[in-house]
Amino acid sequence: MIPRPKPERFRLRRTMMFMNAQKPGLIKDAYIYGVDSIMLDLEDAVAENQKDAARFSLYHALKTIDYGDTEVIVRINGLDTPHWREDIRVCVAGGADGIRIAKCECARDVKTVEQAVEEAEEEADRAVRSKHKMTRSELEKAIEKLEKEMKEASKRLEFEYAAVLRDRIIELRGK
Fold first, then answer.
1. Residue 6 within a domain
2. DSSP letter for each residue of 5-51
3. Which of 3, 37, 40, 50 could cross-link to 21 by cystine, CB 3.0-4.6 Å?
4. Structural domains of the chain, count
């Protein structure tokens, strides 16, 4: 595996190049354009019958291409498809810097993907990454947003989801 520097959380992202993860000829030279980030797409850019081939190509690229300090993000298929779990396994095993969830609509989607990433890290025998530390203001904003979403879930009578959000709020508060 080509070692890459750990991505910086607050890095400057002026330019991002989107590329079809299925095209090895394109993704092997993407770093030469000097972009800050590369988004390798497994979702819309890949035909339904080519998803497995695209994941194979992506894994090979992540393992063998030296992207230097260019951040490599992978856009996975939406959670409403049968492909997203395998997409995550390939991203983790290959060492992608990050994952972008296609058609992400709520905090529950993020939590679901986070859990799948942790499972994939354990499966790949990689240390489960520690959560990013948030600044105090980021933490307060996150809690405020979760509280609002929890209240809305309660109004919609989605009590199980509201309880999940409540537990996340408690976890963030460190209680």
1. no
2. PPPPTT-----EEEEETT-HHHHTTGGGG--SEEEEESSTTS-GGGH
3. 40
4. 2
- Residue 94 sits in a domain whose CATH number is 3.20.20.60
Full residue range of the structural domain in which residue 153 is found? 136-173
- How far, in Å, are 3, 105, 118 from residue 92 at the CA level? 14, 23, 9
Given a cut of 50, whether residue 22 has pLDDT beyond it is yes
89 plus 141 within the same structural domain = no
Q: Are strands 98-101 and 71-76 parallel, antiparallel or unpaired?
A: parallel
DSSP string across 71-85: EEEEEEPPTTSSSHH
Q: What's the pTM value of the predicted model, to 2 decimals? A: 0.69
Q: Does residue 2 sit within a domain?
A: no
Q: At what angle do helices 159-173 and 107-123 cross, to 10 degrees?
A: 70
pLDDT tens for each residue of 97-142: 899 999 888 888 999 999 999 999 888 776 655 444 556 777 788 8
CA angle 146, 148, 150 (to 5 degrees): 65
Contact 122, 128 (CB under 8 A): yes
CB 146 within 8 A of CB 172: yes
Residues 112, 160: one domain?
no
